[in-house]
Structures are given as C-alpha cells and as structure tokens.
Design a protein that fits this description.
Keywords: Aminopeptidase, Hydrolase, Metal-binding, Protease. It is built from 11 helices and 18 strands. By secondary structure, the protein is α+β, with helices and mostly antiparallel strands. The strands form 3 sheets. Strands 1, 2, 3, 12, 13, 14, 15, 16 and 17 form a 9-stranded mixed beta sheet that branches. It has a 6-stranded antiparallel beta sheet with strand order 5-4-9-6-7-8, with no helix packed on it.
C-alpha cells in the first residue's frame, strides 16, 4: 500500500511472483509436482517439524522480533506481495479478489531486557511478558547484543546450603534475580561481551522430540505454532483458487498488550481475522479432566471467549461447523483469563469479526512447553478450510444486524 514500507526481498520480480502463483495453480489443477517452497500434502508434517524447530529456536522477544520476521519473509516471499507496517508487523498478500481475510500469529515470545549491569559484571533484568518467577532460577538464557551476537548466561540461584529454612519457601521476585554471563566487571560485560542496557534476552531451550511420537518440547510454542501455522496455511492457499483476498501476517508485541495487532489492523484493513495461537493446555495434575478444554491430542482449539474478546458468534459457529464437516478434531473453549490479538483486531475500524484457533501447549511462558504435533496439523487444516469458505456473501452475513 502507498505510504507503507516494503520488506526487502530476494530480488524476486512481480513477473517472477506471477510465474510462481501460476505454477502453484497448475500443480493443484493437473496433479503435477508443486514448485520449490510449496508444501505437498505428504510433506506438510515434515515441513511442520523443521519449521517449528527453526521458529522456536529463534530469538524474538517483544520489540525485537527480527529473527522470526526474517523466517516469515524467507518462507513466503515467493507466494505473495510482502509489506510491513511501521511497528514491524509483516504481511504477505496472496493473489485473489473479494473480502480481505487475515490469518495472523504474533511473532514475539515472553522474554526479558537488560535493565542494569552491576559493577562486578552481573546482569539485572526486567520481564517483557508474563512470567511466574518460580520457573526462572537456574535457567539458561541468551542475550542478543546490538551486533547480533548471542551471549549465554544463567539466571543465578543460591545453593540450599546458603539459604535459611524460611527463605527456601519464598518465591523470589525478578528484581531480586540476576544473570551470570561469566564476566568479572561491568567494563568486561560492555566492552568485551558487547552487552548494553536494553538488549533483549530470550530463554535458551532446544527443540526436542519426546519419547511419545509426535510430541515435542521447546520454548515459545506461544506463539511459534501460530507463526508456523500462518506460513503453512498460506502456502496451501497460495496454490489454490479462493474467493477472497488472503493476507498472512506476523504481529509484534502481543505479549505486552496486543500492541502490534492494533497497527496491523489499521494497515491491512481486513474484513475478517483468523488468529492462530499457542494457548495454555489444562490437562495436567491440578486440573479437572472433566472440565478440560485444552487437552493435548484433543485437536485444534476453537476459542469463543476470553477477557480480551468475545468472538463473532457467527464466525465461531462457522469454524465449528467447518471442523465437523471436514472431520477435523477440535475442542471448544471459553476462557476465564488470558487474551490474544483478537482483542485488538475485533475493535479495529468499524469492527472486525474475529476467531481464535489454537494448539494447546503445556507450560507456556516458561523455558519448556509441550505440544502434540497433530493438534498443530489440525489447526492448519481448519485455518485453510475456514478461509476457503469466507466468500463475499458469507463475510457480509457475519455482520448483518439489520
């Protein structure tokens, strides 16, 4: 759009983009092999695993989403027209005419910023996003410097030998914690390690297959499942005819107040928003199994309500009906707490019908969360199927109140 910054591409011309889209359409129509970069049906699962590994191991805390943004651009630059808003949200518009349907995930993960460096070289930090302090002590982190180098450190903890009995039962607050990067002075931290105040800090935790088939553990499934899903859904839709204009988006700063979604909605001006998320699972000890609405292996989660947004009832019903008719395992949820980018999208402009599709993840907002890959694949399937049904008459019907 005029007046908005364009994301640097690999030099692919518009004619090259047209050839790519045409090749995608031919692949669908005549059953020939799709061009490079387009997921085949049999390759979706393998691509999901490699993409989730790349995304979860990326360093992208609120306000510093560069690494995830680069993956988005690399994966989608041949599928549509790339652009970015002035807050850093990134978009890929696919070929098509009709109502504007945005499929969006947020690029950021909960993390920290360098708040101070002590004279003896320890890092004091503050949280960006919601953390439970119980989960932080003795965990590894990476500090990304202005030059892009990543410095490994650990959130320090006292051995129990030095703790009075009463203190062992207390939860430390973040302002009492510090990170040890192996330095001996502030001068060494700044001049030799290159660490500055305000540098972003992310959890350090590798993407790990678990013993149970298709279960994976990693940091940042909230919301790298949403970003991976946006990319894979977009690639599938880029190779098909659809009666709308699909806009794929990665938003910024969701974890600190759904901020990027505000500018994204103003920039993209969608008629409908499908938000892809990594919500908390509720299937572990301490939760009632009978009341669980986010069980691993239960399918894609369709959210109807949380304190940030009441989903458009007609769109939510369409999502549920689509899942049933397409045979996609799903679970419906009404949440007492939490929020998603739908909280900003549904209030933008004159109102944007929104719905949230999620992959339940255990232990989010920590160094190690767990998902069932099949729930992720069902989310991608439902996002694609729902987007295909959002033609002009259907979209108009979502907001016909008189």
């Amino acid at each position: 759009m005029a007046g908005h910054s364009q994301v640097p591409s690999s030099g692919l011309s518009w004619n090259g983009h047209e050839r790519k889209v045409t090749a995608c359409l031919r692949a669908r129509t005549f059953g020939i092999a799709p061009p490079p970069g387009v997921d085949s049906v049999t390759g979706v699962k393998e691509k999901a695993i490699s993409l989730l590994q790349e995304l979860t191991e990326a360093h992208s805390v609120p306000g510093h989403e560069d690494e995830v943004r680069a993956i988005f651009v690399d994966e989608l630059e041949e599928c549509g027209t790339l652009s970015a808003d002035r807050s850093g949200c990134v978009f890929c518009e696919l070929e098509g005419e009709g109502p504007r349907v945005i499929i969006a995930g947020h690029m950021d993960e909960v993390g920290f910023l360098v708040q101070n460096i002590t004279p003896d070289g320890f890092i004091q930090f503050l949280a960006v996003g919601g953390w439970w302090e119980h989960s932080l002590l003795s965990q590894r982190v990476e500090i990304r410097t202005r030059s892009g180098e990543k410095i490994t450190g650990v959130v320090a903890s006292k051995p129990p030998h030095f703790l009075p009995e009463a203190q062992r039962r207390q939860v430390m607050t973040i302002d009492q914690m510090f990170i040890d990067v192996g330095a001996t002075s502030r001068l060494e931290v700044e001049q030799e390690f290159g660490i500055s105040l305000g540098d972003p800090i992310a959890p350090l935790s590798p993407f790990t297959p678990m013993q149970r088939e298709d279960w994976y553990m990693a940091k940042a499934f909230d919301n790298r499942v949403g970003m991976a899903g946006t990319i894979q859904a977009g690639k599938q839709l880029a190779g098909t005819l659809h009666s709308n204009k699909i806009i794929l988006a990665g938003t910024v700063q969701e974890e600190v107040g759904l901020r990027g979604a505000k500018t994204a909605a103003n920039f993209a001006k969608p008629d409908v928003a499908i938000i892809l998320e990594g919500p908390p699972a509720d299937d572990t000890p301490g939760f009632s199994r009978a009341e669980s609405q986010g069980r691993l292996g239960g399918g894609v989660q369709i959210r109807l309500f949380d304190p940030s947004a009441i989903m458009n009832p007609r769109l939510a019903d369409l999502a549920i009906r689509t899942a049933k008719e397409e045979g996609i395992p799903h679970q419906v949820t009404v949440r007492r707490s939490g929020g998603t980018d739908a909280g900003s999208f549904h209030l933008a402009g004159e109102g944007i019908p929104s719905v949230v599709l999620g992959v339940p993840a255990r232990y989010i907002h920590s160094h190690n969360s767990i998902i069932d890959l099949n729930d992720y694949l069902h989310m991608v399937s439902l996002a694609v199927a729902l987007a295909r049904r959002l033609d002009d008459s259907t979209v108009k019907g979502l907001t016909r109140f008189l």
